[in-house]
Specification:
The complex is a heterodimer of chains A (551) and B (355).
Chain A: H1 2-15, H2 29-38, H3 45-56, E1 62-69, E2 74-81, H4 87-100, H5 114-122, E3 128-131, H6 134-142, E4 145-150, E5 156-160, H7 189-199, E6 205-212, E7 218-225, H8 231-242, H9 252-259, E8 271-273, H10 276-284, E9 288-292, E10 298-301, H11 313-316, H12 319-349, H13 356-365, H14 373-393, H15 396-416, H16 422-436, H17 441-479, E11 481-482, E12 485-486, H18 536-550
Antiparallel strand pairs in A: 1-2, 2-4, 3-5, 4-5, 6-7, 7-9, 8-10, 9-10, 11-12
Chain B: H1 2-22, H2 26-48, H3 56-64, H4 66-98, H5 105-122, H6 124-149, H7 167-171, H8 174-179, H9 184-189, H10 200-232, H11 236-242, E1 245-246, E2 250-251, H12 254-283, H13 293-306, H14 311-319, H15 321-354
Antiparallel strand pairs in B: 1-2
The chains are: A alpha+beta (551), B mainly alpha (355).
Chain lengths: 551, 355
């Protein structure tokens, strides 16, 4: 019956040869990819190596080492990618294969049992994977495996020899913190996942992996706490990630665009962060984190509006401080959007609302300014945006100096030339400072852009226009959803129990319940009644002191 | 939503509408109005919760037969259209009169129609969430404005208390009670609730709360402006706030009242427009109400612009007995008939079970 199985193998190998040849220069990329995906490895080492070399072309970073295994001298090839596989581990693997199979108990292993002997007894690799197709072989190589092809066997054996290359952990520049952990994510997926695993040590912290991008084959990690995150949400994330069909993913922002609910929204629907502590905290609430290999920015879903206005220090500082600063940030966000428009509206249409003395001062300062108030504000806002953008693009050593000097010189010169009034410069400066308090960069951009809309509405329709714009924004925010969850929760819909962590922050011992919508699978997160109080020892000594005083 | 629906138009104009005969006893009229509003809620919502999965469009046809039920529903739609049209016109008149006199009224009305149409199109959930956001802001603005108004309060304006007896108080409540016809929206909204049968208590509670707010406002207006000036003011609440002058910096706080009213207008008109669209779609047996939003919004806009020459004609219509008769005939009488029909049906079922 052995002849029958050989016949079947040969028949299978014949049928799986792809129509088309990888040597053909006329094939376009999609045809080449299709050929690679269809090609099944055969039992012929020579055939497999030929197909592999046709696939990779003259790529010099891929090493192929030919060798013979065991006393029977079975031809084999060891393949690895230089910067992906650790050279020391690879060399040890080669040494193990050559010495152990030439001596010891395995030297006389028959050829057909070689893969089994190698994987179970000889090689001491932490992980062994197998590949049946050229595509799978390539995936193993990209994950840092060293692949062994053996003549006479249709499967390739991959041994884990991954070399982890990452920059040192640094505090994220986009989200600095005064008091809080100073580590941030890097571009390496496995390092980022390990940073979370250090913080959440339950085995129920699951990390699923996906590969996205036909050419880049970027690894995507989806992390959640099993039993806490809603199964429907997990399934939704899986579906959306699996639905992505693109040639390349280089950054998490691209993933965000493929999976978000409102592509046209100015406000970010997905929360992005570089901070592991932030990701750990959202996972503990029942949300899901999406990691992208090659970028330190991790996406957290579902997102709420209030999350975007939170800074890490709100949770690490004392409650009154964290609450006041958090509330100030809320006011600053709305001020950064509404202040210039309200200023224009008030001075253009509603002079009676301004206290008389202040009105006289402003009017006097505006004496001789050739532009209407709206135009002044527009010009200065535009100039400030240019300065801000220039400051981002210039090298750090020069950038901040240029922007400060530019702002000061421009502002002062403009006032001196009588082009703008001092009050407008103050308003624009206050607006800019208010916008800097927003922790999330994408969120602050939304406010910056909407500011111009409010300036137009205020200049045309006064406070009625401001109100119209404000109500329209509220309508839009309340209609948005993030992966099925209301974006403006817990403000609209109003969830009173969740408000303790929105405008202000309550004490940690009072945060007994998780956010109602996201954390409803396991609403209680800690034992209630943990308000600090003196312990038993302190009680005893207090009682003794009291009784002594009585005597 | 109910609180803001009831409060919006009443806060803007209530004292003017009640002080005609109540004068310094406008606060007493407000209390009577609050109790009367509770009865109206019980009348409308009390029947609605007995048909928790059907709106008034459906159960009116079930109780009174299809032709009669449809006729009643059409009457309801006309009343709702009137309310939403009057509301938009009133607010536009305030904005034009006080802040932007050169802006054409159609523009202000059109802006409100657009906002409400967007809210309606986005769905009742969006309207509910928006109201969750705006009601606290509205309440906060009123709570800030009221004490400031009391800074110019003169309690002697409230005297003599009930000098002319209860008759002027009761007779001045007709218009405001007729405005309670807005609670018709409950008849369409109850089936949309998560727990329709538990809607009655919150509805009554919010009505009472709105009543208390109105009473406080009436007291403040009478105390600040006095009975005569309060009677001649078109927007007495806002006029009373204009009189506030605390330190030299806190003046002209009627802006707070105007902003609060603007928030209330959006929620109120969105709810009424949604109810109009929803009821019309059920009447026409349509699957979705959204295609009707544009046409009904247009009808609303035209009605707002054409039905009144100016603000005074709008106020005179509402002050006249014709308005109270109109609402009674189109809302309260049909509901009374619905209750009677329901009672007869329940009795029949009870008799059947007994046998």
């Amino acid at each position: 019956m052995k002849w029958l199985s050989e016949l079947l193998k040969a028949w299978r190998a014949r049928n799986t040869k792809p129509a088309g040849d990888l040597k053909d220069d006329q094939l376009d990329i999609s045809e080449r990819e299709a050929l690679v995906q269809r090609y099944r490895l055969t039992s012929s080492l020579e055939g497999n190596l030929k197909a592999f070399k046709e696939m990779i072309g003259p790529s010099a970073d891929i090493t192929i080492r030919l060798m013979q295994l065991g006393t029977k001298r079975v031809p084999a090839a060891i393949i690895s990618v230089e910067e992906f596989a650790d050279s020391q581990q690879r060399d040890e693997l080669v040494h193990t294969l050559t010495t152990n199979l030439l001596s010891g108990a395995f030297q006389d292993s028959p050829a057909h049992k070689l893969p089994e002997v190698i994987t179970r007894l000889v090689v001491q690799s932490p992980r062994i994977n197998y590949a049946d197709t050229l595509d799978e072989l390539w995936k193993l190589l990209l994950e840092g495996f060293t692949v062994i092809l053996i003549d006479g066997h249709e499967q390739a054996i991959g041994c884990a020899t991954e070399r982890v290359v990452h920059r040192t952990l640094q505090e994220p520049e986009s989200e600095p913190s005064i008091r809080g952990p100073r580590d941030g994510f890097t571009e390496c997926l496995s390092t980022n996942i390990s940073l979370i695993r250090r913080r959440i040590r339950t085995p129920n912290l699951w990390a699923e992996q996906f590969t996205v991008g036909s050419l880049t084959r970027t690894r995507i990690g989806v992390m959640y706490i099993k039993g806490l995150a809603h199964e429907g949400l997990i399934q939704e994330i899986r579906q959306r990630v699996n639905r992505i069909s693109v040639d390349g993913i280089l950054e998490s922002g691209q993933i965000e665009e493929f999976i978000e609910d409102n592509p046209t929204s100015l406000f970010p629907i997905v929360y992005r962060t570089e901070r592991p502590d932030r990701v750990a905290s959202v996972l503990l609430e029942g949300r899901i984190a999406i990691f992208t290999d090659g970028t330190p920015f991790v996406l957290c879903v579902p997102t709420e509006f209030s999350m975007l206005l939170k800074a890490p220090d709100d949770y690490y500082e004392r409650v009154p401080i964290g609450s006041i600063i958090g509330f100030l940030r809320y006011l600053s966000f709305w001020a950064s959007m509404l202040l210039p428009g309200t200023y224009v509206a008030t001075l253009t249409f509603h002079h009676e609302l301004v206290p008389t003395e202040l009105l006289f001062r402003i009017v006097a300062a505006r004496e001789g300014v050739p532009f209407p108030i709206a135009m002044e504000v527009f010009i200065l806002e535009f100039v400030f945006e240019i300065l801000r953008e220039a400051g981002l693009r210039l090298p750090k050593a020069v950038g901040s100096a240029v922007t400060i000097v530019g702002a000061l010189v421009l502002g002062d010169a403009a006032i001196g030339a009588g082009l703008v009034s001092p009050a407008v410069v103050i308003i624009i400066s206050l607006t800019a400072i208010a916008s800097f308090t927003t922790a999330n960069f994408a969120f602050s951009i939304a406010a910056r852009l909407l500011r111009f809309v409010f300036i137009v509405l205020g200049s045309l329709f006064g406070l009625f226009g401001i109100q119209f714009g404000f109500l329209l924004i509220i309508l839009i925010l309340t209609s948005m959803r993030s992966f099925g969850y209301p974006y403006f929760a817990p403000i609209g819909p109003l969830v009173l129990s969740d408000l303790k962590d929105v405008f202000v922050r309550t004490w940690w011992w009072n945060m007994v319940r998780r956010p109602s919508l996201v954390g409803s699978r396991e609403p209680i997160r800690q034992r209630p009644g943990q308000m600090p109080r003196p312990g038993l020892q302190a009680n005893r000594s207090n009682k003794q002191r009291a009784s002594r005083m009585e005597r | 939503m109910l609180f803001i629906t009831r409060s919006s138009i009443s806060i803007a104009t209530l004292p003017a509408l009640t002080m005609g005969s109540a004068a310094q006893d406008a606060w007493a009229a407000s209390l009577v109005i609050a109790l009367g509003s509770v009865l109206i809620v019980l009348l409308i919502a009390g029947l609605g919760i007995r048909f928790e999965d059907k709106s008034v469009v459906r159960f009116s046809q079930e109780l009174l037969g299809k032709p009669f039920g449809m006729a009643i529903t059409i009457g309801f739609l006309i009343v709702l259209l009137h309310f939403v049209g009057a509301e938009a016109r009133l607010y536009a008149e305030l904005i034009i009169g006080s802040f932007v006199p050169d802006t054409p009224i159609p523009f202000i009305v059109g802006s409100m129609v657009i906002l409400a149409a967007i809210a309606c199109y986005l769905g009742v959930e969006t309207i509910g969430r928006t109201s969750d956001v705006l009601v606290p802001l509205f309440t906060l603005a009123i709570l800030i404005a009221l004490p400031m108004g009391f800074s110019a309060f003169d309690s002697r304006s409230l005297e003599p208390v009930l000098a002319r007896g209860l008759k002027p108080v009761l007779s001045s409540t007709a218009t405001s009670l007729a405005l309670g016809g807005k609670y018709l929206s409950l008849g369409v909204l109850i089936p949309q609730a998560t727990k329709p049968t538990r809607i009655l208590l919150p509805a009554v509670a919010t009505t009472l709360l709105a009543g208390i707010t109105q009473t406080l406002i009436a007291v403040m207006v009478v105390g600040v402006l006095g009975p005569d000036l309060g009677n001649s003011s078109v927007f007495p609440f806002l006029s009373a706030l204009r009189a506030v002058n605390i330190i030299r910096l806190i003046q002209r706080v009627e802006a707070l009242g105007t902003i609060a009213w603007g928030f209330a207008i959006l929620v109120d008109t969105s709810v009424l427009l949604y109810v109009l669209c929803r009821a019309t779609s059920e009447l026409m047996d349509l699957q979705d109400y959204r295609p009707l939003v544009g046409p009904i919004a247009t009808v609303w806009f035209v009605y707002s612009m054409q039905s009144y020459d100016n603000l005074l004609s709008l106020l005179h219509f509402h002050e006249s007995p014709a308005f109270a008769v109109f609402v009674t005939v189109t809302v309260f009488v049909p509901y009374a008939l619905l209750w009677i029909a329901y009672g007869i049906r329940t009795l029949k079922v009870f008799e059947k079970r007994r046998r």
